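Kindly inspect this today.
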Amino acid sequence: MRHSLTVLHRWLRRLAAAGSFVLVAGAAAAQTPVSATPAPENSSARTYGSGWSCDAGFRESEQACEAITLPENAYLSGGAYGSGWECHYGYRQEAGGCALIPVPENGYLDSSGTRWQCDRGFIRAGNLCAPVKVPENGYLTSSGYGSGWACERGYRARGETCVAIALPANAYLTNSGSGTGWTCERGYRVRGEVCDKVELPEFAHLNSSGDGWQCNRPYRQAGARCIAP
């Protein structure tokens, strides 16, 4: 019996020693750092998070940082995507480089620096700025498109001319650029080319637009009359 206990104690000590070895080995394995991918040349560690990013003037390509080829009349944009460069004011990207934007006579570069517009009094005609021909009773507009002119109040455009608006009785001119150019006075309604007087039935008054009528309260409309409820 005593011999058996001695054997059991030896076996337990061996088992404990083996367990301690396994734990130590496991802890050592857990603490062994995983080798990270080395940062390539011309890169720097990111300010936030892990990893790296390419320095200014370089772009990432297959885990490396390649120099950006900067064409003439361009500058580094610092963007993470695209070409990494942009053209100077007055130039535009063309065939992988920066081409000068040709501005015609009587034209100017707009604020973006990538396109041109014509001066006031001129209108775009292909790649040129042609003078605007303003008809009699017309005036120059600020638009660089369309005809470049509009008719004075009281006139309407007809082709390349400005014709006087025929104003019927009891009508006045409007500022609308479309339609007849006139509307009827309050109390009249448009009928073709004339203004007809609005005939009020008994117990009625002009509506808010002034070109019709509605019944006084508490009367209600019944055809062309206002009848008691």
In short: The two ends are 122 Å apart (CA to CA). The longest strand covers residues 91-94. Confidence is low (pLDDT under 50) at residues 19-35.
